[in-house]
Amino acid sequence: MNKKFYITTAIAYTSRKPHIGNAYDIVLADAIARHKKSQGYDVFLMTGSDEHGQKIEEYAKAKGIEPKAYVDEISGEIKAVWDSLDTQYDKFIRTTDADHEAAVKKIFKKLYDQGDIYKGSYEGKYCVPCESFFTASQLKDGKCPDCGRDVIDSKEEAYFLKLSKYADRLVKYYDDNPDFFQPASRKAEMVNNFIKPGLTDLCVSRSSFKWGVPVDFDDKHVIYVWIDALSNYITGIGYDTENPSEQYKKLWPADLHVIGKDIVRFHTIYWPIILMALGEPLPKQVLGHPWVLFGEDKMSKSKGNVIYADELSARFGSDAVRYYLLSEVPFAQDGNITYEAFIAKFNTDLANTLGNLVNRSIAMTNKYFDGKVTNGGQKDALDDELFAVTNETIEKFNKQFDSYHTADACETVMELARRCNKYIDETMPWALAKDENQKARLEAVMYNLLENIRLLSVLLEPIMPKCAKEIRNQLCTDNKELKVNATEGFAVGTPSPLFSRLDADKIIEELTKEMEEKMKAAKAENDAVNTVSLAQIGIEDFMKVELKTAKILECEPVKKAKKLLKLTLDDGSGTNRTVASGIAKWYKPEDLIGHTVILVSNLKPAVLCGVESQGMILAADIDEDNVKVIFADDIPRGSKIR
Description:
The chain is an alpha/beta fold. It starts with a strand and ends with a strand.
């Protein structure tokens, strides 16, 4: 019986269609799964969609439909994107699946009954897009530390999971399982940033919205994302608190969770503690991969600076997209995608190096030997050198893929392809073909090339499955043995280009126009959602806000924050006040000194990067990247604004 390998991706959030950065999860997991299958493992790959939460509720409302109808649509889009990338998952779980919801209710109840979940109240800063609570000290420049967006003050009754109860046991698990974190550096981040300062109990229910799995014994609450979404890894394979399935017993614990680096905390702290509390084994490894950036920026659907994997796949083929992602995202550093970089890599690696090697080798075999060559056993120093590189490549590739260094593995494959092209230049088959006495030598050269191309196809199988299959089709072989000289000969077919060179200038111009349209559409959609999200208030609420004019006496940058300026204001009260404002991108201190601004003067003070901000000044968002402070220079300082 083959050894099992259970691998999962993070489940995609159904707020909007996933961009190519979101799709990296499934491509990476699929490549690892295919590699494990080639090694004889019994692999089970699960992916899916995360479908509850306040953000979903708001998007559905903006569209004028029920949340379930909204997530049905987006979940379908997620599956379509995954399928466009030629990924082979064994199960696609949805957190609105009836069996998942039933299991999550039982999990919550069990943790409550045994005292690991208790009822309390939460007051803090809440980020709606991230669905996360933060303390004021955790904010970055007054905004969400994860996504950089504005947060809102929130206070509500909630249930909490006792994290601190399991902190020591969790650290011991880290120490006893040194391979748990991939890359290993993620461990220091979790221990130093979250565990050593002291784990605070985790909010695991919400009562301010309704779109979620209800708490059975308290219908005011829905179960929050941490228990709902994270539990998919066990509910999707049949976990039940009372009677787990045979499949669960076979597959759990997971061998590998493939996730983005931004959710490592949830998968290496919250999730293990939930499992400890349930009395279940912990996953063996968590791979927190880097991000795929658009140029130098994190891709954001709200900004519209996104590339969609299915659109790229439709234009260039799924293998080209898979190859780019797997080769351009290093093991521990963020990767980068631009249209220019994608097309350059396509032309250099796929068309010139790999495609040209396969095409001319098969064409020469047809021309010189009517498509048939055998392994005559002839060798010289050039052949030995080539096959030494081949053997080294196979060993190196397997080590790199086994440790999830896929970018290095892709480069290793291309190094062999380049070496084969060099071998053609060294042996010069066209010159050998002119001398009848060199026919045996020519046949050996062609066999060596074709055998290396066959081996390249086997190595490429987890990276570019369609391309790998097409290479073997053109070689007229289905031999996938990863061993040198495993074939007696070849009877090749008609050569057909694997990848045709792209006209970079023309395509980039087309794609740039499409990107501009996406950014416009994203802004319009954000405006619609934001309009829905703003709750109406009565005049009595508005009258609680005290607005008055104040003159800027001094202004200077805040040393620890690129976005903040520290303003000293005279509001006519006789005592100057300090305000920290995130306008440094648009104003220099000298642009502001002497101007009169409108101040929210009764705002509760907050400490931002070491500066106590005693209010807020009013500014206008002109467009996505243009902010203007509202000046009131003709109005005396201290005047009330009504």
